[in-house]
Amino acid sequence: MEIKVVIEDVTPEEEHILMTKPGESITFAEAMDLLGMKFYRPCGGIGKCMSCAIRFVYGAPEITYEDERALDFSDIRNGWRVGCKCVITHDCKIQVPKRLVSEITSIGMSSAENDMPLDKTNIAIAVDVGTTTLAATAVELNTGKVLRQHTWTNGQLKYGADVMSRIKASIDGHGDELQQLVINDLMSLGTKILGEDFLTHKVVVSGNTVMTHLFLKYPVDGMAKYPFVPYTLDAVKFRETSRDIFFMPSISAFVGGDIVAGLYYIKQQAKKHNREKETFLFVDMGTNAEIVLFDGEKYYCSSASAGPALEGASLSCGVASVRGAINHVSLQDGVLKYTTIGGEEPIGLCGSGVIDMVHELRRNNIIDEGGLLLEEYADAGYPVTDKILMTGEDIQQVILAKAAIVSGIQMLLEASKLGLESIDHLYVSGGLGASISIWAAAGIGLVPKELVSKFESLGNTSLLGDIEFILDPSEEALQSIRDNSRIVMLATTPHFEELFLENLHL
After folding, report:
1. Within the chain, what is the greatest distance between any pair of CA atoms?
2. Residue pLDDT, tens place only, 413-436
3. Domain annotation for the chain: domains and CATH numbers
4. What is the pLDDT of residues 83-110, one digit of tens each?
5. pTM of the predicted model over 0.85
6. Of all residues in the chain, what percent are helix, strand and coil, respectively (each to 5)?
7. Taking Cα atoms as reference points, which of 430, 404, 422 lies closest to residue 493?
8. Which of 153, 277, 417, 459 has the lowest CB atom count within 10 Å?
9. Sign of CA dihedral 431, 435, 441, 444
């Protein structure tokens, strides 16, 4: 059986060919794995999000229930199928949207810097193990100079875009593969930034609690349901061959080592500038938005389940932060303008573009405060380009995500008994934090407008904290952060539900 795969909008067009035994059936996801390509399935292949449609030029498989649920009949007749549910049984040619296979781009360093020659005898590596993205930075030990960095799509995405789907996969017997996927990805990252014969003396790793557990192959059963008890929250350190490896500790099941690393970075920077008692709100925006409020003494921490909408996933118009993703939008007098990552042809909207788009639609009264589109756009959606539409369902998902985050912020303010006027800094981290328009975010109610003037984008604070620890390690400071942290539960608190319902508007 001959399976041909073509990635759309890639020039020159290339056919990737997989030969299998005659009469043998294979899923599309398995075919992509064998071809060495990552197939992005936001819901992990359970057919929940329906956002992985692919088109068969010929040889389309039988129509499934998921196809009928997700696609128009005219699209099905034209060869479109839900990719995660496809079973291929005969020769075919498949067109795959670029957004379903693209690697996430690196932010923060030029390609020229990444091509500089290295002294490979004095290197440490900082690693951020994200649910969607892995990032690694090479640091010169004696100077602290950042030498190279790169990002890579987490291969565990084949089991879903959120941590709960990964937990389920591990419990279902895929723990070994989940661990190996990350190890393989990180080895590829190491080769990418340092070459084949790289040697490192120190590695500091941070990630959310679930990602760290999966990496270390610790049991995750306790985090599958309330009260969400991890196997361990402590730092893990060991020596492997010639290198010292250190995993950042966590605060709770859903406030992990990536947040501890970020707080370590903020704490050390404040110490250097004699600002240790200044208050701040720290928001790491992602599928699970981790929020920390520091009142000068204690860290009030929570995790709001925002869903993947603000990362571009699960939206009909959404993509990850890949080349060609629309990252900023303006709409004035009916004229829509946008920019894309890398200046390439648009393939969809990433998180910052999604926030801009919803803000611009509301500002121009194309949607009302409940997110409903004007009647002329209600059925098809609002056209961003000829091929990209923002639908009413997309807008509702954004409203749900923003309601979860701002309600979490309000819960922390109440727990700390601080008013917005008492907050000295608003720090936003993560890939979205690096590109977000704070005015658009405040305009849709994602963050309080009172904090706009106090906003500072920190970028990848997980990596920054790792680097800070490489250069100035203090396990006592890490322990101080943990000892002075208080978890504010959201999901089990009726008041959070009340705030959430109140915030379901723009």
Report:
1. 71
2. 999 999 999 999 999 997 777 788
3. 2-100 (3.10.20.30), 111-247 (3.30.420.480)
4. 988 999 989 999 998 777 755 444 344 3
5. no
6. 40, 25, 40
7. 404
8. 417
9. negative
